[in-house]
Design a protein that fits this description.
This is Lysylphosphatidylglycerol synthase domain-containing protein. The protein has about 850 residues and is mainly alpha-helical. The chain contains 33 helices and 11 strands. The protein is about 65% helix and about 5% strand. The strands form 3 sheets. The chain has a 6-stranded mixed sheet, with helices on both faces.
């Protein structure tokens, strides 16, 4: 099906079962995503059982009473027989299976099972210890009961969990006869220990889940034996379906096996003893698992877009691809004819296609992609869409052109029949982008309009967005965007350098004529440099490909809808914020359960509460000073203060480190600062604030470590923190990937910030305002926390309070929750307690501090945000 296949067709056929090409040696073990998924499900199941056991007291007690009542009516002889039979079977069945595997030379599975059993036994002992020493009483009551011989029963059966882990790890459940025997043994053992009063139902569930979870965790860690079929097995499978193969050539690159994005199977060109060659696609479980989590996420996160392959079995994948191949040909599209299909054991399938001697679109040079060729491709797409068939992978490697110029569409493994309008329009958007990357937007749109018509092309505009495109296409668009940004930065730097040189020459001439330094000349030179940079940016700015395609379509259909369709059901940031918010709420509620709010309200000193309100209000003035100190342009101070108050409302809908930056950047742009300078000013403020934050944290940490000692030697905590930071810095410097990541981010940051800092340095009063505002901001927050502590009768040194606030603020900025909600409270409370403050004082003090600095300003922040929006200042 590829050009490489044509090269091999005339090769020397020296003997049967000959393999050409680079067929790599398959790894002995593979890490299956399904094992990791089962591990996570097992952990979740254990957590659910423990939560139910902790809170459903009535259910657990009633269930145990029902079992005890039923056990009293069971014949003692039956109970004794079940106990004896299960004890013998639990030992004999694993040994019998091990002997059977060893006879078939499958000793690796036995080794996996023994390792899983040992680990499960260790986890069982650890769980028993935790339940006995640290678990809540409700969990202890649910997992244990008085044993018939005295004492308490074991929370986890130390012999049953290893057996379950062993039998799961060796794959006994995948063999029908052994699976039935396994379930009989488990049910018999559960009946014996439950009726005999040696366990509880929750203990049985936890035991089974521990064995199951440890088994899959072991398999994922050490890897499962690789059962992927080789090319030799492929040739044998072809003989079983009536072909006489001579040689097989691997058509795709062997490196594709290691690609996380390759789930399309291995492709071979097979030469027969008589007749034309065949194209064979080999799909196995490992290849199908590539990109599993990516497809599962797309299925969950995108609305109206099905991703069935993320949950398909091999037989379902085989049936779907065969159905799509027949449906495409029935629709009148040119597609490789499917000749035969077959299974290659339980873990692989093969699809045999008619060989097409041609080249894929990605191997054709750009000059060979003519308008007629593109129209031929669009005719194939039109044929599919006429029968509502979606291809879903219309990239350039899925289009094949034979020697006569006939176009074929290949790789229907991800397609759909009876597809909806949304998916069909996504195919059009994908094909427009594929051709646009090769020949440009104008020719791509013209070819599509010539075949599909302007209305069908215009309908795809809402789907012309990165999230609707294929993974490889999105990666290419991101790479091109980085290249455009780099060219724009280089143009701005070159224009700035040329402007400074021209200004220097002009100033030298004016100084020579006037005999002195002219302020007017300086301002003129500065304006000329800014104008040159702005003009250079405008000239260097390039439109991205998707915008170019939209513009070309709008030239044909000006009334076409351009608003992007809402495809995302949920965003990754939403999931992270939800999880982080749930954890933060848990920790916060665990603290609040010990707080008597009546005592908090009645026990607070209202004089100190008023002082906390004053210092909280002072922070907004300090924040405005720190921002304007890095903005050389004139911006109204009062309006800047109002913008900082508006930031209190923005914190509720965005993480603290994101919302404030976006709001300040937008505010400066509306105030007349050019976009690039606005971003650079906010970046300079953030960068300088980060440095100031780190310095203050180190200084106050050092003072905190020395305030209780007669010498100036720092505490062990400070030394440990410094050593940890040094080790992290060394790790980043030693690992190439981390080093490159940090260098690129720092370089991108300094590309715009450093010139802005040079402008600020030339105005000492501005720099002094920025530094003073940052120091005043930190002092105001520290004093607000200090008076909040004093409001409840507590007292700590200013150095200790400063360390707690700075550390908590850093954690809040890193937390993905709005305003660091939950993370800040937990960090501040823990820090104050660590420095010796009583918990009964630390918790209400932190709540008062957060009330003054986070919750109370929300309403004024909303009013300020609305006011600035109406005045078009945001």
């Amino acid at each position: 099906m590829r050009h490489a296949g044509h090269r091999a067709a005339g090769a020397d056929e020296s003997g049967p079962d000959h393999l050409d090409g680079d067929e790599p040696i398959l790894p002995a073990r593979v890490h299956r995503p399904s094992d990791l998924l089962r591990l996570l499900l097992g952990i979740l199941g254990i957590a659910v059982v423990l939560v139910v056991a902790a809170f459903a007291h009535g259910t657990t007690a009633g269930l145990e009473q029902d079992i005890d009542k039923g056990a009293g009516q069971a014949p003692p002889l039956l109970i004794s027989f079940a106990g004896f039979a299960s004890s013998v079977a639990v030992l004999i069945v694993p040994v019998a299976f091990a002997v059977e595997r060893l006879i078939k030379r499958d000793g690796l599975r036995i080794a996996d099972g023994v390792l899983a059993a040992v680990l499960a036994h260790g986890v069982s002992l650890a769980t028993d210890l935790w339940v006995a020493e640290h678990a809540p009483a409700s969990i202890q009551n649910a997992l244990t009961e008085p044993a018939p011989g005295g004492g308490l029963t074991d929370p986890v059966h130390g012999y049953l969990a290893p057996v379950i882990a062993y039998m799961t790890a060796v794959g006994m459940a995948r063999r029908p006869r052994w699976r039935v025997l396994l379930w009989v043994v488990l049910l018999l053992d559960a009946f014996a220990v439950l009726v005999g009063g040696y366990t509880t139902p929750f203990s049985i569930l936890v035991t089974v889940l521990i064995g199951w979870t440890v088994a899959y965790g072991t398999l994922y860690t050490v890897g499962s034996p690789n059962v992927r079929p080789t090319a030799q097995q492929l040739l044998g499978g072809l003989r079983r379906v009536g072909f006489k193969p001579v040689r097989a050539l691997r058509e795709d690159s062997p490196e594709a096996d290691r690609s996380e994005q390759n789930d399309r199977g291995r492709r071979y060109l097979v030469t027969l003893e008589d007749g034309p060659p065949l194209d064979v696609t080999l799909v196995d479980r490992e290849q199908q698992a590539h990109g599993f989590y990516y497809r599962a996420w797309r299925r969950f996160a995108l609305r109206g877009i099905t991703q069935r392959r993320s949950l398909q079995s091999l037989r379902q994948a085989l049936e779907q691809e065969a159905l799509l191949a027949y449906a495409a040909i029935a629709a009148g599209a040119n597609a490789p004819r499917l000749i035969a299909t077959s299974e290659l054991g339980p873990d692989a399938v093969m699809l045999v296609y008619q060989h097409i001697d041609g080249r894929s679109l990605d191997t054709l040079p750009d000059q060979e992609i003519t308008d007629e060729l593109m129209r031929a491709v669009w005719r194939q797409v039109r044929a599919l869409q006429s029968r509502r068939i979606a291809h879903r992978r219309l990239e350039d490697d899925a289009v094949l052109v034979d020697r006569s110029g006939t176009v074929f569409l290949t790789d229907f493994s991800g397609g759909e029949i009876a597809a909806g309008d949304l998916v069909l329009r996504m195919d059009v958007a994908q094909m427009l982008t594929t051709f646009g990357l090769r020949v440009g937007a104008e020719r791509s749109v013209a070819a599509a309009v010539a075949v599909l018509g302007p209305d069908a092309v215009a309908d795809s505009l809402p789907l012309l967005q990165p999230i609707a495109l294929n993974r490889n296409t999105r990666a290419t668009l991101r790479r091109l965007a980085k290249e455009r940004a780099q060219r724009e930065r280089e143009a701005a730097i070159e224009a700035s350098r040329a402007g400074r040189e021209a200004a220097g020459e002009g100033e030298a001439g004016e100084l020579e004529a006037a005999g002195g330094r002219s302020p007017r000349a300086e301002k003129h030179a500065e304006r000329a440099e800014k104008r040159a940079v702005s003009e250079a940016l405008e000239e260097a700015r390039e439109e991205d490909l998707l915008s170019q395609i939209r513009r070309q379509v709008l030239l044909v259909r000006p009334q076409a809808p351009v608003q992007p369709a809402r495809l995302e059901r949920v965003r990754p940031r939403t999931v992270v914020s939800f999880v982080a918010g749930a954890l933060a709420a848990y920790f916060l509620l665990s603290q609040l359960t010990h707080v008597d709010f009546r005592q908090v309200v009645g026990g607070a000193n209202w004089g100190w509460v008023a002082a906390a309100l004053f210092f909280a209000a002072l922070t907004y003035i300090a924040a405005a000073m720190s921002l304007l100190g890095f903005v050389p342009e004139k911006v109204p101070f009062v309006r800047t203060v109002i913008a900082q108050v508006a930031g209190s409302f923005v914190k509720l809908v965005a993480p603290a480190a994101v919302g404030g930056v976006a709001l300040n950047t937008r505010f400066l742009q509306r105030a007349g600062v050019r976009p690039g300078h606005a971003v650079a000013s906010v970046g300079a403020s953030q960068l300088f604030g980060l440095g100031c934050h780190i310095i203050l944290l180190l200084v106050f940490g050092y003072l905190t470590g020395t305030e209780h000692t007669p010498t100036l030697s720092p505490s062990r905590t400070v030394i440990a923190g410094l050593l940890t930071a040094a080790v992290l810095a060394l790790i980043v410097a030693a690992v190439p990937v981390l080093r490159k990541f940090v260098v690129e981010r720092v370089r991108a940051l300094f590309a715009g910030v450093v010139p802005r800092m040079l402008d600020v340095v030339q105005r000492p009063q501005k720099l002094l305002s920025g530094i003073g505002g940052m120091l005043l901001l930190t002092v105001s927050f520290v004093m607000c926390l200090d008076v909040s502590i004093r409001a409840f009768g507590g007292e700590l040194s200013y150095a200790s309070i400063a360390v707690v606030f700075l550390a908590g603020n850093a954690l809040g900025s890193a937390a993905p929750t709005p305003g660091g909600l939950g993370a800040v409270e937990a960090a501040l409370i823990a820090g104050l307690i660590a420095f010796g403050l009583e918990k009964e004082i630390a918790t209400p003090a932190v709540l008062l501090f957060r009330l003054m600095t986070f919750w109370l300003p929300v309403l004024p922040g909303w009013l300020s945000f609305t006011h600035l929006t109406r005045r078009e200042a945001l």
